[in-house]
Amino acid sequence: MPGRTPDLKLSFEFFPPKTEKMFNNLMAALDRLVTLQPRFVSVTYGAGGSTREKTHDIVTHIKEETGVPAAAHLTCVGETRENIDAIARRYWDAGIRHVVALRGDAPEDWDHYEPHPEGYAYAVDLIDGLKKVADFEISVGCYPEVHPEALSPEADLDNFKRKMDAGATRAISQFFFDNETFFRFVDRARAAGIDAEITPGILPVGNFEKMLSFAGNCGAIVPPWLHERFGRCVGVPDQLFETAVDLAARQCAELRAQGFDTLHVYTLNRSDLTLEILKRLGIVAANNDAPAQKVAANA
Ligand SMILES: Cc1cc2nc3c(=O)[nH]c(=O)nc-3n(C[C@H](O)[C@H](O)[C@H](O)COP(=O)(O)OP(=O)(O)OC[C@H]3O[C@@H](n4cnc5c(N)ncnc54)[C@H](O)[C@@H]3O)c2cc1C
């Protein structure tokens, strides 16, 4: 409907590029996606803090060059509390007010996650620390299909509640493909007294093998029908693209129909898939990369 102000609030996630070519790709993706006026974009923090400087540089670059609110991911892995606090203070001094606070995963050469003896052990501890540094807006992760290291679904939900009670504003979910699982998870969170925003995390499947590897690491369930659908696309890039768009657009449309007005897209630094999905949803004009409708800015 022309002129309508839709209620969809978008956020986009990027990762710090490793090479100059990847940096140029990211800048091109950013140029196109910021025109959609996301309420924020976020930049990941490499495993074990491996991208500390790059994350900082990209986050501050986004803030300064695009004016879009930028959020820095920060994890607890392998750092003292003192160092993490210093990183946070530097963000605050650079005008970054939003942190996605995470525990982080064990680096590849570790058997399992071990907190640093002088570090923040879990995300909830990091939130406590960040709040002491400054009054950051804080987003956290949540897991509709239960975090793989959780002692039980109940323990994971308790942990989620503790993170919100510690001062997080919103949770961004791990990606999932079965909306029903997400709806049930949100119901359980509401029943546990979590009233805050729970934003579904959407992963467009531009590369099926890569998605399988992510899912293996984070415990996301890949249903048989998804294997079947992507199995038909092997060696046919156009069909793969169309399948990825169709799948994500249907998932987002159903989430919106159920009243979810926030979406966080794991862009993997690609703008083409994200734009095409938003076109399919009617957020972007079908024949144009400019937004057909303005999404709610900075809401
Ligand atoms: C939106 C989003 C963005 C992400 N971005 C990044 C990123 O930029 N960089 C990165 O490295 N990773 C990132 N991750 C992955 C994340 O770091 C991992 O999923 C990590 O394993 C868990 O992080 P968390 O903050 O959810 O952990 P937590 O909330 O701390 O929970 C971790 C696990 O510990 C359990 N637990 C919590 N407290 C206790 C306790 N006291 N005793 C025993 N068990 C406990 C929980 O149930 C859960 O199983 C992201 C995940 C999401 C959903």
Task: Kindly list the characteristics that best describe this protein.
10 helices, TIM Barrel, alpha/beta, disordered N terminus, globular, binds flavin-adenine dinucleotide, eight-stranded parallel barrel
Can you walk me through this structure?
- It is a single chain.
- Helices cover 43% and strands 15% of the residues.
- The two termini are 21 Å apart.
- Helix 3 crosses helix 4 and helix 9 packs across helix 10.
- The protein has an eight-stranded parallel beta barrel with strand order 1-2-3-4-5-6-7-8, surrounded by five helices.
- It contains ten helices and eight strands.
- It is of the alpha/beta class and 299 residues long.
- The protein has a single domain, classed as TIM Barrel.
- The structure holds flavin-adenine dinucleotide.
- Flavin-adenine dinucleotide binds next to strand 3, strand 4, helix 5 and strand 6.
Write the layout of secondary structure elements.
Elements: E1 9-14, H1 20-33, E2 40-43, H2 52-66, E3 70-75, H3 81-93, E4 98-102, H4 123-133, E5 137-142, H5 153-165, E6 170-175, H6 179-191, E7 197-202, H7 208-218, H8 224-231, H9 237-257, E8 262-266, H10 272-280
Parallel strand pairs: 1-2, 1-8, 2-3, 3-4, 4-5, 5-6, 6-7, 7-8
Helix pairs in contact: 3-4, 9-10
The structure holds flavin-adenine dinucleotide.
